[in-house]
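User: Fold this; tokens only.

Assistant: Input:
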Amino acid sequence: RSVVVASESVSRSEQTRSLAEQLRLALALRVQREHSTWVSEVTTAIDEGRGIRALRLSSHPPKAGAPLPEQILIRLTEIANTGLSPDVNQRRWGTLLVAVALSPVHQRVEPTGLPENPSQELLDLVRQVGTQVPQIAALFGVEPTSPLRGRSGRSRARS
């Protein structure tokens, strides 16, 4: 990608412009192929009943910001909503919650119910991912923890 972007500023001769165009087309085809493969993998995981895998796959697009078709987003939301139910054991509930928090449907999910007497481990997990799924954190009555930020720049020592 960086070669294609850089080629726009240095294409001086006809030969280099032609090569840059070939590179642009090859990159566009590769991105399109990777996107199609990604969509296919997510769909296959859904069809096979592997909801957590589908949610995890959905969170790793081949190109940042690449969208999934609306039909797949609807199916992922349904999987998450039904999976986050009171009759699911808390470990699985937590695993599914983490997958939801990282997926593109994280704001759409509304659990069908909460586990009865949630463990401290589950509550801590809800706090950790609460900024990605505030609607779920609110259901638990949990305040999300702020992500830790590293210090940027140099520290200013005063003498």
